[in-house]
Amino acid sequence: MTLTAGTRVGVVQFSHDGTFEAIRLDDASINSMSSFKTAVKKLQWIAGGTFTPSALKFTYDNLIRDSKRARAKVSVVVVTDGRFDPRDDDSQLRYLCDDSTVVVNAIGVGDMFDKKHDSETLVSIACNNKNRITEMKQYTDLVADNFIEKMETVLCPDPVIKCPDLPCKTELDVAPCVGRPVDLVFLLDGSERLGMENFGHARHFVQMVANALTMAKTRNDLNGARLALIEFGKENENQVAFLLTHELNGIASGLSGLSYLDSSSAVGPAIFKTINEILGKGTTRKTRRGAEVSFVFITDGITDTTNLDEAANAMRREQIVSTVISTGSDVDEEVLIKLAMGDQNAIFKGQTFSDVLQPSLFNRFIRWVC
């Protein structure tokens, strides 16, 4: 069955003649952010030459033409850092332009795009629409907050669902996590390094997340989000503010009643406790069928690392998606990376905890966990 709502994402990596690696739009195994991230991480750098025109033809013929959904808008973002091989057929640069349902955006990375020849290449890729061309000097600019926000506007300029075939809901359908179940568990480091002021900020942050997400309607609703929070200190010193729940009143009550441990920190035992008691095992499993389970660590990484590697492996076995929020300059980067399971992009940093509450970082976090 092909879903008629929601967003699907495909990826094509291209290199020399006939060399492509793709994540297909209709890949049935990719049904969550976690599975998509896993597929992207499996992509291997091909190296070699550049056959951009052939890649555009491959993309349409193999990812778009036969797998696009009726009435779906197809947005293509082409990222290229140089000229294409002259042996390739340059007439195929406009291969995507013949389908009126496909909108093409071209991003040129590097200094060569101030030259006429390469600028003309971008114009052709973007179907002569110069408003859909972006030029930048380096690849790190691709992950800049202002560029990501710009691309969101470009790809989704009018985020309103018209509901052509489905009854409209009373709340906005564009709210985060509306299309799939997400069980989000916060692990808050209650060590003395956090401080009472930041403890208050952390509680406020979790409440903001609950308010920003589209929560599940019932305990077993297969859409929307549920949240849980455990505060951890030294080994076997943990406080559960609330178990996995969709009820905002329960979340607010649990946060207001949570006391600051103000002790040392041991994250490994907290991970095992969370997996065993909050998620549950076997017949006592408390997560929903098909739900993406996400751990969010709020910590500076200064913690007892006993059994940390084993705990990280346990998260991998449970297919848990991990995110880290850390503030200040005095942090343990090695621990943060282990908690993020090696994904640097899953670590969100601010100079102070109040920075995490600001829209630019907070909204980026919401997009990431959803």
UniProtKB/TrEMBL annotation:
Gene3D superfamilies: von Willebrand factor, type A domain. SMART domains: VWA. Signal peptide: none annotated. Residues 1-151, 183-365 form the VWFA domain. InterPro entries: Collagen-VI/PIF, VWF_A, vWFA_dom_sf. PANTHER family: VWFA DOMAIN-CONTAINING PROTEIN. This is VWFA domain-containing protein. It comes from Ilyodon furcidens (goldbreast splitfin). The lineage of its organism: Eukaryota, Metazoa, Chordata, Craniata, Vertebrata.
